[in-house]
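Problem: given the chain below (234 residues), write out its structure.
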Amino acid sequence: MDRVKLQNRVDTKFVFETELLPQILKDISNDYAVLTIKEKRWNSYRTLYFDTKDLQCYIQHHNGKANRYKIRFRNYIESQLNFLEIKLKNNKSRTIKFRKETTQLEENLSKLSKQFISDSTFFNGDELIPVLWNNFTRITLVNKTINERLTIDLNLSFESFITGEKKELPHIIIAELKQEKASSNSSVAATLKKYHINKSSMSKYCVGSALLNYDIKSNLFKERILKIKKLKYA
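Solution.
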């Protein structure tokens, strides 16, 4: 894992039906090692996203703005770790991640957390509020020969922090290939192509927000949600 921290990287996402996962894992098993924590290869994550009251993080992503941020607290359950994490997608389509370990997942931002956000983004920490919970299970694979890792997220669920409304997406997988630079020289990319799975932009924060907040649905994320429904009924 130290070899593939890839805090400055290129991300490629894929979305497909849960039923395909066992065969895909079998096909790539010789090329990847799997992260195991406390004898578990399926690890649980709980995330709380922060945004402004007028949802500037969401809107900037929707509008395709370069140099946009996602701000979240994430609880790595098996590792018993909490981090305040900031993801920057820059104007070169690279993902740069900043994070700070915390003693707990904060629903109310501490003074230190607000300062970290202000130092790392153009947002004022005082302007941010918690908006969306996200839970999922993750399998993490590390390529044995090249510097890349693949995260496979399943059992996705979302809950609005504001209304408490919930949505579950047990039928889909969001896989994310993380590389130093974009390259097709990856056995998992070739395997996914064999199953006619093409790369697909899919932000968990934005899709969860669109599913739970009917006032902010837009053509872009309606398209993503339609794809999710098509997978469900395929």
